[in-house]
Design a protein that fits this description.
Helix content is 30%, strand content 23%. By secondary structure, it is of the alpha+beta class. It folds into two domains: 188 residues, Fructose-1,6-Bisphosphatase, subunit A, domain 1 (Fructose-1,6-Bisphosphatase, Chain A, domain 1), CATH 3.30.540.10; 140 residues, D-Maltodextrin-Binding Protein, domain 2 (3-Layer(aba) Sandwich). The strands form four sheets. It has an eight-stranded mixed sheet, with helices on both faces. It has a five-stranded mixed sheet with strand order 12-11-13-17-15, with helices on both faces. A two-stranded antiparallel sheet has the order 1-2. Helix 2 packs antiparallel against helix 3 and helix 5 crosses helix 8. The radius of gyration is 20 Å and the shape is globular. The chain binds 2,5-anhydro-1,6-di-O-phosphono-D-mannitol (AHM) and magnesium ion. Magnesium ion binds next to strand 5.
Amino acid sequence: MNRPYGITVSRHIMDSQRLHPKATGELSGLLTELIVAAKTISAEVNMAGLADILGMSGDVNIQGEYVQKLDEFANTTIKRRMANCGYICIMASEEEADAIPATEGCEGKYTLAFDPLDGSSNIDVNVSIGTIFSIHRADTDGKSAGSESDLLQKGSKQVAAGYIIYGSSTMLVYTTGEGVHGFTLDPSVGEFYLSHSNIKMPEKSKYYSVNEGNTRYWTEELLQYVNYLKDEDRATGRPYSARYIGSLMADFHRNLIAGGIFLYPRDKKSPIKSTGKLRLLYEAAPLAFIAEQAGGRAITDDGRDIMGIQPTSLHQRVPLIIGSKHDVDMAEKFLCGKKKKEDNLKG
Ligand code: AHM
Ligand code: MG
């Protein structure tokens, strides 16, 4: 078969590093190690229907959810590889209660927060799922152990973030603050090739993604906004179409490429969701970095910039409104009480 591929992800990372003469190569090394872990997980996810790894492991994680076997596999794969890689001092995983220190003697200057397999409730039904990561620089000299406070940094201080989506193909999407780049895995050679250079999210979209089963638990402002999206107004491209898969990677990735707004607001369904469902460190902040680098925006349902939130705990949850800039701007107007559905009907 003719494979007209060009740039591998390793070359892309090295080329970006060369633009920074003072770079030590440690961030490149870290990303390279993470990509190896991702390829291992990708291979396992692709085999999931055949090997005996579908279903529950029998354990319950820190969030009180049942752990799927593939969750456990992904968590262990990343944890083991990164603890010994020499580039990070401390990690946090969505699946673990406490921070995970690097192996003694292997400490580096970065921290890593990761969701090993987001959307894992979809594993058994073959829906796209993914690994999300967020990298900060620690306050240590790179030779000593990191502490939890090194992990509790604002999204605006991230040095890199990305995700690997295990879908119809496996894709890596990452940013180091110089645009967002996407790579597709050729499983036959085990290499990620640049397939989506400098991704830009369409500024305005025609899709919204939200779990409408929770409507009765929403605020009036949110209800008004979603009803506004469903009203007919050809001039502003409404009604919007609904697209909700219930797997953040699948919903976010579609919106990144095709445009759209994703909402997981706080709701009154359960006390756990009184501050939203998604986690700041493992989901909201890294995706906010990617969205902003692609020209999009990410806020909470009371209009705070996700990137500006100071985390106070490893598993903190936040309401997340993320996607095409114009759509997030409009959502903000409704949610912050500056716009009502009636205003719109007047023009
Ligand atoms: P997880 O981290 O336990 O997998 O949960 C996060 C997932 C996201 O992938 C998705 O956007 C959301 O939960 C869906 O939640 P809901 O089923 O409440 O709509
Ligand atoms: Mg998750």
